[in-house]
């Protein structure tokens, strides 16, 4: 029994994330495994369990398996896996599962991403908090006596070869022109999946000369944090692309479900450009199979170039709020072929509506290797506008700051809507901005885009000045 761990500290809206030994330990994970089986009614069913390269992931996987088998589930241990390997296995084997990972967080963190059978996501709306509450009860009071109910079994399975073969069946890279690519795995799981999918570690080689950076699996992240969203974590990759004269660079986050792309000049391609590029390819593929007007999902702060490209290609763009649970739900509801987010999460119908950075990277390689232009020219087509990137301001009264910005634009030819935060867009389509309050931090997040830097930068500066102005206190 334990009264030291409060699971409400580590259970978030979409997954579990905590500091090892403080908000998450093996005893808590065992209780979570038992609650996972009980809440989802998985006694007698298969439950998949894997983990990333963090020092605690193997111990936590075993602890979860103990709790799950105690409550009657038959656990299949997948060993070290990326998050999208779990989604693949959950979809392919039609089984619920978990992967222990804290994605891009520092080494002292670990967490759990959970999936129902068929790679269906589990969030606070679909059972995650019920699992939390029952696990807390088990942690505080002890696991219930199992009685005569048989305990489940434990088996082991390696899904890397099946995962790699499945991805290669979706995008054929065998006939592209030879490409030199630098891949920065950040000591994360991309160091395992890249040689298997893109190299010759598991399957026959492809026309790819891979220059590896930090492929050693090391959850202490000795080289740099495995968070490619931060520009400083891309510097080694950018330098290596230039040093080796590579055609492009790829950077994966810690659990390898997100991928960032660098062109041959060492400059990043925005996730919006990748979304548009992949969307056009996926639309063409399913149209060739007879599907009319396929749906593509994008969140509201991707570039407006995304819906424009989707429409021009004959698809139907559908906008959602930010967040993977919204994207995945909309993917299923709409039967969408593809979905993309500004944060470099890419979702595929053929991948059980789940996100996989590796499959997005393969589409980029196929597009680049199927013609002669360098990636900078190919990518420029998909980035016709100038984006500000996300800028955070620490603001206590986020609603008040937003109201001041709205008042500033009163009487001007703009449109305002409030799907996720507040979006203000020029009536002539020349610019848009979005202000979204963080749910967990005292930040107001600003994103914007314009027809040119000259258009968007003065608006950006004016809005940030309004947001950050000191307000009198009573």
TrEMBL record:
User: Might you give the EC number(s) for this enzyme?
Assistant: 5.4.2.8
User: In this protein, which residues make up the domain named Alpha-D-phosphohexomutase alpha/beta/alpha?
Assistant: 9-135, 163-266, 276-384
Spell out the Gene3D superfamilies in the cross-references. Alpha-D-Glucose-1,6-Bisphosphate, subunit A, domain 3, Alpha-D-phosphohexomutase, C-terminal domain
State the Gene Ontology terms under molecular function.
Answer: phosphomannomutase activity
Task: Establish whether keyword Metal-binding is in the entry.
Answer: yes
Top enzyme class of this protein? Answer: isomerase
Cofactor(s) needed: Mg(2+)
**Keywords from the named record:** Isomerase, Magnesium, Metal-binding, Phosphoprotein
The residues covered by the Alpha-D-phosphohexomutase C-terminal domain are 390-464
**Pfam families on file:** PGM_PMM_I, PGM_PMM_II, PGM_PMM_III, PGM_PMM_IV
The record's comment on protein family reads: Belongs to the phosphohexose mutase family.
- Provide the protein name: Phosphomannomutase
Q: Which organism is it from?
A: Glutamicibacter protophormiae
């Amino acid at each position: 029994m334990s009264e030291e761990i409060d699971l409400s500290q580590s259970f978030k809206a979409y997954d579990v994330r905590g500091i090892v030994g403080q908000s998450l330990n093996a005893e808590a994970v065992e209780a979570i495994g038992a609650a996972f089986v009980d809440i989802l009614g998985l006694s007698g069913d298969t439950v998949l369990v894997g983990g990333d390269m963090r020092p605690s992931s193997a111990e936590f996987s075993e602890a979860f398996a103990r709790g799950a088998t105690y409550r009657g589930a038959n656990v299949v241990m997948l060993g070290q896996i990326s998050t999208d390997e779990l989604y693949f296995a959950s979809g392919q084997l039609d089984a619920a599962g978990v992967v222990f990972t804290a994605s891009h967080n520092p080494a002292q963190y670990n967490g759990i991403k959970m999936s129902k059978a068929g790679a269906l996501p589990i969030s606070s709306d679909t059972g995650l908090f019920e699992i939390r509450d029952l696990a807390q009860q088990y942690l505080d009071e002890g696991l219930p006596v199992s009685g005569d109910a048989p305990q489940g079994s434990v088996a082991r399975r390696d899904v890397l070869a099946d995962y790699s073969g499945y991805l290669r069946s979706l995008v054929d890279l065998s006939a592209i022109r030879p490409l030199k690519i630098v891949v920065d795995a950040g000591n994360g799981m991309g160091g395992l999946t890249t040689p298997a999918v893109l190299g010759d570690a598991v399957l026959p080689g492809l026309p790819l000369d891979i220059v590896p950076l930090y492929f050693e699996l090391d959850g202490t992240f000795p080289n740099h944090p495995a968070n490619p969203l931060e520009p400083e974590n891309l510097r080694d990759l950018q330098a290596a692309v230039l040093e080796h004269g590579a055609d492009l660079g790829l950077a994966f986050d810690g659990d390898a479900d997100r991928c960032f792309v660098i062109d041959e000049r060492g400059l990043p391609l925005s996730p919006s450009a990748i979304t548009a590029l992949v969307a056009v390819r996926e639309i063409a593929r399913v149209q060739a199979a007879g599907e009319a007007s396929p749906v593509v999902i994008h969140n509201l702060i991707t570039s407006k170039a995304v819906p424009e490209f989707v429409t021009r290609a004959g698809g139907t763009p559908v906008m959602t709020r930010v967040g993977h649970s919204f994207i995945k739900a909309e993917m299923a509801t709409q039967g969408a072929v593809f979905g993309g987010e500004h944060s470099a999460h890419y979702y595929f119908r053929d991948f059980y509506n789940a996100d996989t950075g590796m499959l997005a990277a393969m589409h980029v390689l196929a597009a680049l290797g199927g013609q002669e232009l360098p990636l900078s020219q190919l990518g420029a087509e998909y980035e016709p506008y100038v984006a500000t990137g996300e800028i955070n301001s620490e603001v206590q009264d986020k609603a008040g700051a937003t109201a001041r910005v709205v008042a500033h634009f009163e009487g001007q030819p703009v449109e305002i809507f409030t799907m996720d935060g507040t979006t203000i867009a020029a009536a002539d389509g020349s610019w848009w901005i979005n202000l979204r309050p963080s749910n967990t931090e005292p930040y107001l997040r600003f994103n914007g885009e314009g027809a040119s830097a000259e258009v968007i930068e003065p608006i950006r500066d004016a809005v940030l000045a309004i947001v950050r102005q000191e307000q009198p206190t009573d």
